[in-house]
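pinging the channel bc i need a second pair of eyes. not urgent but kinda urgent?? the chain im working w is below, pasted from the shared doc
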Amino acid sequence: MHTRMLQDGMEIDQTIVDHTGRKLICRGTILDEYMISSMLKLGIMGVYIGEGQDDEPAEDDKLPPAIKETIDKNTIIDRAKVKLTESVKQRVGVGIQHLYSNAESEDFTQTTNSIANDLMKAILENDDIAIDIDTLKISDEYTFKHSVDVATMAMVVARKHGLSEKQIYEIGISGLLHDIGKSKIPNEILNKPSRLTDEEFMIMKQHSLYGYRILDHKPDISNPIRLGVLQHHEKINGKGYPLGVPKEQISLFAQILSIVDIYDALVTERAYKKPFSKRDAVEMIMAMTDELDISCMRSFLDSVILYPVGSTVLLSSGEKARVVANNPESILRPRVVGLNTGKVYDLLNNLNYASLIIQ
């Protein structure tokens, strides 16, 4: 739930920690106005709250038996999604905060490898894997959450793209560290609650170069990992930064990282912007064919689940519908069942519904 929508008496379903790992609010705490305002001041834009906090009957309990039967008959379970256990999320959250706060520490590489091992294990445990970004939450602080999101998504996309296990592991490290150079950016720019000026943005654009320089002194960090960090804002049309190199000079790691970095930034709320819907974010990425590699983009689109089976969506007709099956070849067009009519809408294959979209 968005933090600004929280109310007195709600029970928080996660532990809030600061950048040092110190617990500020423990899971299970009943929130009050002071706690809510404190989280807003810290830039925490959303939290998990406990389920069952009202006595409203579940939506499925209100459905007519015939519609329930139609939903059951048409349901095809999603591909396995990457999942992190609560203990892994806690370990990864503390580890990533340590890395970004202690870039020069002696255990930097060891901590990085430990996090990458946790993510790699979660990915290899599933044969047919996909991304549901809502399940990856490990922290409320943007930089840390974003780094783990990017690392995990990049590993899944790399696997879909046919990379070796070693490459999947290394792109995970590159994703974890892609913003490590932000530790060298002044806090007044990094944490500014409004849009940056042109001059401030020029300073911010140096973070990928700073990150490369941090890693350049660490012999255990491979060149592909460093190049991913350096080039994750480069574009295939040569209009990226910090070097403005063309596609031929951009590493494969960077081309994948660029896509997942943009996606995660679009769907994440910040103090100065509301999040885009996952649908809008995907459509924006699909429109960036002059900036992003099309082959890597296909692997990304093949990996993302926008509307998990079982979720409820709103159709452009105004009807609510239950997602019963996804179409991997077109993630924007799943099969759904109308909750009012019981009609099955195959948004991809039935031309009668060509103008119907999920809002």
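so Residues 53-57 have pLDDT under 50 and may be disordered. and The chain has three domains: 3-41, 57-78+308-359, 81-303. — does that match what u expected or am i reading it wrong
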